[in-house]
Amino acid sequence: xxxxxxxxxxxxxxxxxxxxxxxxxxxxxxxxxxxxxxxxxxxxxxxxxxxxxxxxxxxxxxxxxxxxxxxxxxxxxxxxxxxxxxxxxxxxxxxxxxxxxxxxxxxxxxxxxxxxxxxxxxxxxxxxxxxxxxxxxxxxxxxxxxxxxxxxxxxxxxxxxxxxxxxxxxxxxxxxxxxxxxxxxxxxxxxxxxxxxxxxxxxxxxxxxxxxxxxxxxxxxxxxxxxxxxxxxxxxxxxxxxxxxxxxxxxxxxxxxxxxxxxxxxxxxxxxxxxxxxxxxxxxxxxxxxxxxxxxxxxxxxxxxxxxxxxxxxxxxxxxxxxxxxxxxxxxxxxxxxxxxxxxxxxxxxxxxxxxxxxxxxxxxxxxxxxxxxxxxxxxxxxxxxxxxxxxxxxxxxxxxxxxxxxxxxxxxxxxxxxxxxxxxxxxxxxxxxxxxxxxxxxxxxxxxxxxxxxxxxxxxxxxxxxxxxxxxxxxxxxxxxxxxxxxxxxxxxxxxxxxxxxxxxxxxxxxxxxxxxxxxxxxxxxxxxxxxxxxxxxxxxxxxxxxxxxxxxxxxxxxxxxxx
Length: 565
Known about the structure:
7-stranded parallel beta sheet, 21% helix, alpha/beta, single chain
């Protein structure tokens, strides 16, 4: 993998106190990291079946949280065999043979095992419950053989002259500040962050409110069992701060009131296929506890072992293990948001896995003016789908470093959490929406929806316009055939509404109320047979935010949502 965030530059150094919190961590009965990785070769073992698993789809509460079950039910998603835990007897048999179980995947029906003796592979392959010859996903090593983390993080040379700034632009570019002002800041949404570690994320100043509100529901390390993820790596900390951080006049996250799950899947000082399988297990963990959104500022293409390398032809959403898993995660009702990659200026050039997955959002990086950066990975996917899906500011993006300083970062690692947080706010405003509707409407209201390309994809989304589109009313049994179209929506100082189905009505009554029911405007409008378009010419009395326009005539009543800029 590459952890996609690059250059970090200090804006201000803040003092902070280390505080201690008691957090209850959710432990599930499957997928646990059962053994520390001691340096022996690691293999992936696929099982033949789940015929004898003691679990049943009739009792999903035995292996999924109620929150995960509710998310499925809300979106009409059935439980399937991939949800069932693997057969525990198969894991016991591997342990009896001498293998150490590291992580387990229900979706892939298999396990990662550490093997001290290569002769065991032939014995394991012969077991009747093993599907194929185990695949080596990480060779044996000593820690002195590993590369340094610093060389791995030098991904682009952008961003080293930005002196100072706040996070306003990275949110305002998407009209996300208007959602925040209207009270949508991610409350009630659960975001899982899959990353390389969260060094000091439990102590830096901008994230203190998250801990004080008990909005960290769980954390988990799939890289090295028993290692505290808050000592592991800085990258996830900065990503987390872009979504959840608050520091007055410096940083305001895209979804600072959301709940979070922190998951370490990436070993930042080595590069092997094992990390994709760690991600598979991490995504399953996020699913099992009911996450709504996954943010993954990670990407994979080339490895230290060239035999594990992907080719561009593999970027088809159906080849790389991590991309297959991202597609499964989407099928479970989660929105997967991932960095497109920082390879635009390199020989690889294209997106990296899992950005190629179908039904997810791969995010490219722009500068603060909305121009695509040179480092942002290009599409399309190998099978010709539009990639990246969206873009957001990924250059001079404000975050907080694990050391406490406020920094700007450059990389699609930085643009992905900007989008993930704003999606949480949008979904909060429309809790009845499903994943497919949410993504479809966001793309529809992005800057290049009509003419997507391989640099911007569908472009920069506008979350105010998406909000208005998703809250658009349609005629129902109470409307008596009355239909309405409001434009422009979002509105500035005036708004038009096109009425149909009125027949020979002599007037309509228009009320404007806020989301709590407070009345701001009321007027009667005469209608003429040759004029169905009416106008309210001065909306300066309204502050920014969402409102309801309630239109009543003799034919019925219809309520339509609009957004005031």
